Amino acid sequence: MGHVKHVFRNPVIRVCITGRVPYFPRSYLKIVECFSKLIEPCNREEDTNDFHIERWMRVFTIFTDKINDKKRTYCVIGAGTAGLCAARHALQAGGEVTVFEMANQLGGTWVFNEEVDKNEYGIDVHSSMYKGLKTNLPKEIMGYPDFPIPEQESSYIPAEDMLKFFKYFSDFFGITECIKFSHYVIRVKPTKDEKQWEVIVRDCPNDEFKTYYFDYVLVCNGHYHTPKLPNYPGLNIYKGKQMHSHDYRCNDPFVGETVLVIGAGPSGMDLAYEISKKAERVTLSHHLKDKPKTTFPDNVTLKNDVARLTETGVVFTDGTSQDFSVICYSTGYKYTFPFLSCDCGIVVEDNYVQKLYKHCINIRYPTMAFIGLPYYVCAAQMMDLQARFCIKFFSGEKELPSQEEMEVDTNTEMEERWRRGMKKRQAHMMGPQEDRYYDDLAKTAGVDPIKPVIKKLHKLCAFRFSEDLVNFRKDIFRIVDDETYVKVN
């Protein structure tokens, strides 16, 4: 019986005996290999005793029971940057994954769509992509941690190249076959026994409504799709054209126009520059403490905040006024989840999604998670980290803290934010705190952290657009190792 003791020292076999088998296909392959070694001596006549056969049958029964167990099922809402990495990690954890994507292709916000307002199925157009857009961060930090964007000379690449990358990523990991395109999620709610999620979906091409049930839901619908508009006095009396940057597609319609762009974030500054190529004049209104250092074309001027609108233009907070034929609001977006039922345990107040553990996991129902809420971050890298964090718990490999412990953790973090003077709408803003957030996720779940070189390069590039909007995309970087990058021009 010496060989029996030897085989049962194998940790994989011990896992089978205790009934704790991880949901990882590689583990099953290892177990099969161990069984082969276990079965071999049973075929020798001198070793076929009742004790050995009984032990072998016990392990075999537990193993086959585990193999026949229903896989954990995951619903991923959205096939953009967040949804693709969430699906990838759920699949690699042995899950059965279904991705619902409202568009007819993957890529989320990187998909260009000429349409504005509504699509062919009467659904709000999701993407804010416009012609000629290039990334505002270098490709070296826009891929996933272990799956970088393929090498090319430029660091700042066209949106079309980003879309090709995501399609390649999806095909490589077998995600594409899990995606139901042109499927619009109508409602997500917990089942009566609160053990699963009921998901009602509209199959748009066939105009059919279907109901699915899942163990876990990963909400990855992005937050650049529902415009947030300021409530200035006089909005209703202004007679010119008003639009949000969400509906900007190209600068052709602005020939000869006098344009006010409100908001000096990356999109606002980009649009002011692009529109200035066709418009008679452009004014960029902002409330930055220090005005952007970049040099704009001669027909672009900077002004402070808008106080109110008039019939023909605006009055600024400094008391000056100016007439405009077009006002373009680049004032951000709302966090909206219209498909979540009111009993999902999620409330959104002024873009504060609550209550979430580590800005991810629904504390009331910890089988639901949100990927991609934090902003002023290195997006794809953070989303992948969040996905790994959540799947570590959802797969059963690691146990979540109790709801009470998660609430205490969340309340402690938010109270610290309020003490630093942050507003409710900044609840998910990282910025200077991003490294601490990344490290906390990695440490809590026991997953690989974001590489130091990624953090360093992101800090360098995060505000380059405000320093030199016209030329910053000419910068070329290369990653040397996990700690080092070089600027090659």
From TrEMBL:
InterPro entries: FAD/NAD-bd_sf, Flavin_mOase, Flavin_mOase-like, FMO-like
Enzyme class: oxidoreductase
GO MF annotations, alphabetized: flavin adenine dinucleotide binding; N,N-dimethylaniline monooxygenase activity; NADP binding
Domain of life, per lineage: Eukaryota
Cofactor(s) recorded in Swiss-Prot or TrEMBL: FAD
EC number: 1.-.-.-
Gene3D superfamilies tied to this protein: FAD/NAD(P)-binding domain
Pfam family, one: FMO-like
Keywords from the named record: FAD, Flavoprotein, Monooxygenase, NADP, Oxidoreductase
Similarity annotation: Belongs to the FMO family.
Name under which the protein is recorded: Flavin-containing monooxygenase
The species this protein was found in: Aedes aegypti (Yellowfever mosquito)
